[in-house]
Structure formats: structure tokens, C-alpha cells
Amino acid sequence: MNNVAVIGSQWGDEGKGKIVDWLSSEADVVVRFQGGHNAGHTLVINGVTYKLRLLPSGIVRENKISIIGNGVVIDPWALLEEIEEIRSKGVKITTENLIISESANLILPFHKEMDEIREDIAGKSKIGTTRRGIGPAYEDKVGRRSIRVMDLISKKNLDQRLETVLMHHNAIRKGLGKKLFEKNKLIKDLLDIAPKILIHSQPVWKRIDQLTKNKKKILFEGAQGILLDVDHGTYPFVTSSNTVASSAATGVGCGPQKINYVLGITKAYTTRVGEGPFPTELSDSIGEELGIRGKEFGTVTSRKRRCGWFDGVLVRQTIKISGINGIALTKLDVLDTLKEIKMCIAYELNGKKIDYLPASVEDQIKVKPVYRLFKGWLKSTRGIKKFEELPQNAKDYINELEKFIEAKVSSVSTSPERNDTILIQDPFKSN
Ligand code: IMP
């Protein structure tokens, strides 16, 4: 039996919720290891919809342990609100089934304010962040001035650490002509909620060690997608964490060999929210059609997602970067109505053909996609559960896609319903 890491192989929103839901029913433990409440995973179980942002997807199932690792940035108020929201749907959240790393870094109100201030003044060069304070919180983490879950234990510590972090933030706020941030009310507010967070806090690395010794199956639940990775994505139009699979090990405190299978969730076309390069973007009626048929609106910010053709060059690149063993191909049915389907198989840059996305944003904006054309299948694939039952043109598209990206298609999703999936290989059982 494997431990599995699930990650997005594009710019996020690949339909992880449905796949993670299916896998979390098999797992004993579900772990979040990076990102924060910028993520949005929607699960539909027995007709009830759960919108999760910070809580691992295992939380809505009985007898699963859900862990928020040290690599996650936690807005404590957002977390408590989400816990209440999920509890109100009849889900039990206790110290037994929710564990939070004592070393996780907190997102505080001045992080959210800094995110907003920066986006507002950036004009055309804004990133298009979710404005949740994610970037500023990670900056303070690597700047070694962050407040962590464990700091909530002591008023004295909290006071001293806030003094340090606010010296930094207030210098910037002053420079930008903004009101200085006052620490006393924040200390009081944090101490008020501290017990509700601290009861869940533990050394997560130790718990993971125990769980793996006891042969528990772990699902590492990634958020966002590899093209938003701070090292490997379309920098600077990225999020502030490492979204690649290897980040699961640092984000909880275990060795990389504990991740036995990496599943890349991959949409049969491409979408992106926020600003930044997008070589196969469609600004025509086909792009509109994909958006409408695919219901491409953000779960967290409700923003309309940009849509485009499947970019094989990019997905092949993210497969290499993240060591993806197999992909779960999602939203195939969205392509059902198209007469012709295009797949990007190379780029042209300054008159030369290239087979990867260059690292500089200036070049990323300039590349022109080279397409391979496929005949559409013009038949409904919705709900199909066996590969053989797919129209021949859909099979051809999947087979060529698989060859091009150099990774196995382990499942194909043919509707938002959990059971409407063609399962080719179970990630927990294959090596
Ligand atoms: P941040 O993570 O809020 O700093 O946003 C940085 C970039 O990542 C923006 O382009 C966001 O739209 C994008 N982003 C962050 N989280 C998600 C997600 O869960 N899905 C898709 N895009 C995301």
C-alpha cells in the first residue's frame, strides 16, 4: 500500500476536490502541507456540499485523521470559522480527528492588509492574488519574524514577537502613508481564540512517524498547482509556497521516501485565475464555451477563470519537475461539444521552436503555441465509466496526450459526480 500525494499539474482548479474526495475515502490520514485558505476544495458527499479552504478533505469523513502541517499558513479566524461552518453540517471535529502543527505560521490581519495594499498600488503589474495575506505571511516566515501556533501559549512571547514583526510592517506602512498597526488589541484577540487552536496542536512530524509505523495510509493533499509554485511556476505570477510534491515532505516533517505515488490532477484543457502568462489562452467564443460548460468560476474569490487549450508542453514540464507517476484527467466531458480540439505540443520563440516554457516572464509572454489538431467527438461522454465506451476520437485524444506528457493516465473524470470516473489504476495500490 502506498502513501499518495495529490497535486495540481497546471495553475490550480484542476478538479482536485472530486479526486481527493475519492482518495480520502481510502486513506486513513489526510494531510495539508502548503498554502492556506487561498485554496478551495469543494466536496459533494451524499448530496451535501462542503466547501473546504484550510481543513484537509478527510475531515468530512468518519474515522479519518486530518492534519494541517507546518508548511501551511493559518489564518486562525478563518480556520475557526471554517470549523464552525463544517460542524454546522453535522461533522464532528475533535482533538482526535484534527491535528494542527505547532510550528505552522499564522496569517494575521496585517498580512491581509499588506496583500491588499500591494495589489491596490501595483496597477498593471498586480499579481491578482486571493488577497488572503498568503504572500506576506510566507515572507515573514522566511524573514524569521513570524508568529507560529506555539506562540499562542504565552502572552509574553506573543508580545515580544509581535513587536518584532510589527517593526517591519509598520516601517513599510509608514513609507506607504498607511496607518500604523497597533499590537495590543491583536494580542487580546489572539489570546481569546488561542485555546480553540491550541487544543489541536501537536508536533506533527512525530504523529506522522507513528502513523507510518502503524502502516496507516496517508494522502498528502496539495493545494494550487505546480505552475503557481514559487520556484517552478510562472514567477512572479505565482503563489508564495512550493506546490510541488516534494514540498509534502518538508511541509509535514517526513522523508521524501514516505511519498510513494504522486498523482497529478490535470484538466483536459487549461484554466488560470489571476494575472500572468498563459500561452494557450483563448479569448474567443471557444474560451467562453469552455468557461460556461466547465463552470469556471473560482471557489474562493468567485473570479471568472481564463480558459484555453490543453498545453502538453507545460504539463510534461510539471510532470518532470514534480515526479508525477500518473495523472487524473478531469473534465473531459467539457470538450464534448467541440468540432475540433487543439493540444499545444511546442512553442515558437523568436522564430525558433522550443519544447519547454522558458523561465523568464518576458519570454513566457512572447511564446506562441504550436498546436496539434484533433477531431472532436461530438458525443456526450458524461458519466461514462469504462474506457472502451468512450468515443474513438476521445480515446485518441487521451492516448496521444498520455504519450506526449510521458505519464500514465490513471483515471478519467467524466462529470462532477464522484462515481462518474474511469478508473485505470488505483494510486494507493500501484507502484
Ligand atoms: P495568493 O496565493 O493569494 O498569493 O495568489 C497568488 C496567485 O495564485 C494568484 O494568481 C491566485 O489567483 C493564484 N491562486 C492562489 N490560490 C489558488 C487556488 O487555489 N487555485 C487557483 N489559483 C490560485
For the structure shown, list the relevant keywords.
431 residues, alpha/beta, Adenylosuccinate Synthetase, Chain A, domain 1, Adenylosuccinate Synthetase, subunit A, domain 2, Adenylosuccinate Synthetase, Chain A, domain 3, 3 domains, ten-stranded mixed β-sheet
Explain how this protein is built:
This protein is α/β, with parallel strands linked by helices and 431 residues long. 32% of the residues lie in helices and 21% in strands. The chain has helices at 16-26, 76-87, 109-122, 134-142, 155-175, 183-198, 204-213, 247-250, 285-293, 312-322, 361-366, 392-405; strands at residues 4-8, 29-32, 41-45, 48-52, 65-68, 73-74, 98-101, 105-106, 201-202, 218-225, 261-267, 270-272, 306-308, 310-311, 326-330, 340-349, 352-354, 368-375, 408-413, 421-423. The strands form 5 sheets. A 10-stranded mixed β-sheet has the order 9-7-5-2-10-1-11-15-19-20, with helices on both faces. The chain starts with a strand and ends in an 8-residue tail after the last strand. The mean pLDDT is 95. Bound molecules: inosinic acid. Residues 11-13, 38-40, 127-130, 132, 134-135, 223-224, 228, 237, 239-240, 273-274 line the site of inosinic acid (IMP).
